[in-house]
Amino acid sequence: MPDDLSLTVLALLTLAGLVAGFVDAVVGGGGLVQLPALLVGLPGATPLQVLATNKLGSVCSTSASSATYLRRVRPDPRTFLPLMATAFAGSIGGALVASHLPRDAFTPIVLVALVLVGGYVLFRPSMGEVTALRFTGRQHVAAAMGTGLVIGFYDGVLGPGTGSFFVISLVGLLGYDFLQASAKAKIANWATNVAALVVFVPQGAVLWQVGLLIGLGNLVGAYVGARTAVRRGTAFVRVFFLLVVGGFVVRLGGEVLGLWG
């Protein structure tokens, strides 16, 4: 742990981890809270250390929420297992090339994608209310695997909004309701986080004590968030999804316009 971190900074990072865990468990997008907090709280850390430490905290979050969803929602393993497998492989590939790609180029692309996704969900209020699968058999498995590979690669390279992209793909492409999509998205996101750590840990990039501290906050927030989502149902998850996507648009839009770093 960096020597110059005060107890106040550590407490704020833990709180950020708690909020991020709640957001991430419901619909994904906890990085909107956690990554900026780490960048502010660890000014002396390298970008790779911040990214790797964030992944450690996120693994704690996705572990807790995945366990809750598995127990209470019981998502279909015929979908989430191939989704997990290709997401894991994609994330490893993305993490391996992460240091070789200009990350600034991704921000406008992600911003446009989020605006389109948010608008699509906002103006189609019936979308994701019930599960109505668009594919069956091998086509369904192939669509799940393709989703996992593409979004997993993105998570390994960059990361912000991964959970939200998983959710909207499972709702819009495969036809799941928002609650079922969130359950499968969280399991796939757990796989992408573990895969990224497989690459980052041997590089010595993880700040373990800070990561475990925010991970503790993530665990608590994810447990509460997943139980809230299951209890409140699809309508709550849809509204929360729109709020998180809106937050991402403001955050990334301000970055593109130079309003903040």
Automatic annotation (TrEMBL):
<keyword id="KW-0812">Transmembrane</keyword>
<keyword id="KW-0813">Transport</keyword>
<dbReference type="GO" id="GO:0005886">
    <property type="term" value="C:plasma membrane"/>
</dbReference>
<feature type="transmembrane region" description="Helical">
    <location>
        <begin position="80"/>
        <end position="99"/>
    </location>
</feature>
<keyword id="KW-0472">Membrane</keyword>
<feature type="transmembrane region" description="Helical">
    <location>
        <begin position="160"/>
        <end position="179"/>
    </location>
</feature>
<dbReference type="InterPro" id="IPR052017">
    <property type="entry name" value="TSUP"/>
</dbReference>
<comment type="similarity">
    <text>Belongs to the 4-toluene sulfonate uptake permease (TSUP) (TC 2.A.102) family.</text>
</comment>
<keyword id="KW-1133">Transmembrane helix</keyword>
<feature type="transmembrane region" description="Helical">
    <location>
        <begin position="235"/>
        <end position="254"/>
    </location>
</feature>
<feature type="transmembrane region" description="Helical">
    <location>
        <begin position="105"/>
        <end position="123"/>
    </location>
</feature>
<dbReference type="Pfam" id="PF01925">
    <property type="entry name" value="TauE"/>
</dbReference>
<dbReference type="InterPro" id="IPR002781">
    <property type="entry name" value="TM_pro_TauE-like"/>
</dbReference>
<feature type="transmembrane region" description="Helical">
    <location>
        <begin position="31"/>
        <end position="52"/>
    </location>
</feature>
<protein>
    <recommendedName>
        <fullName>Probable membrane transporter protein</fullName>
    </recommendedName>
</protein>
<keyword id="KW-1003">Cell membrane</keyword>
